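Note to self: keep these together.
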Amino acid sequence: MTGFVNGIITAMVTPFDDGGVNLPELGKMIDYQIAGGADAVVILGTTGEPATMTDSEKTAVIRYTVENFKGRIKIIVGTGSNDTKKAVAASVAAAESGADGVLVVTPYYNRCTQDGLYSYYEEVCRAAGIPVIAYNVPSRTAVNILPETAERLAGIPNMAGIKEASGNMAQVVETMRRIRGKLDLFSGEDFLNLPMLAIGGAGLVSVTSNIAPALMKKMYTLVKANRLDEANEVQDFLLPLEDACFLEVNPIPIKAAYNMLGFSAGTPRSPLTELSEENKLKLRAEIERAGLKGI
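Structure:
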């Protein structure tokens, strides 16, 4: 399946306050994405810290986002798990709540086989009935969707794409060769956004676009218009900012960046920590250099 979504897909943070999830602030953040030209948001993905959220908090985030933004921007919900039954249940719940699609990370910790991966995604797709994007991020899960498995996944009717964050461009190129025209490829590594788009990627699932959606959209638009020299200029401008957004493990820096722009993102939940003072200085300098403005 191709064409479910193209362009800039922002992997949203979840703003927290003393009472739990700050839903009105999440709304301001999504409005900022819409104003910046983002095409979709992922809620409850890795950047959204779902591992430290309660089931009721996650349900509230989905309900709030669908009720307030359905039809204004595509809404994709992170529903992956290391347990197929849980991934299926979460994906079905997201579909029933009105989500446009789901982003499903590979099973983590269990380290299943390639056949196990295919079975996992086939069950989720069959049960959810809405577009499913697989998320390949071996650095976090210790499981890797190999190109031949990606090709098999392309045969599942509502499998809508693969978010590729393996960091291995040789693998990415081979995956693209096998799925071209059958399944969309999305960059899951901000550092590799431009080359992934250049080989035919449908879009970006980006962390940095939380604070720079307009710049990301500009780079994407230039690539798709075959204006690669100009696209490279934008990417060269973005790269130091992207580096700063990963000075510490995601989402520590990007939550700090939102706060610097005037949003109330709060702090990451334990075991994640706040950004160090030294890195705050570096991040703030890059935000100022990029001329970013928040609310």
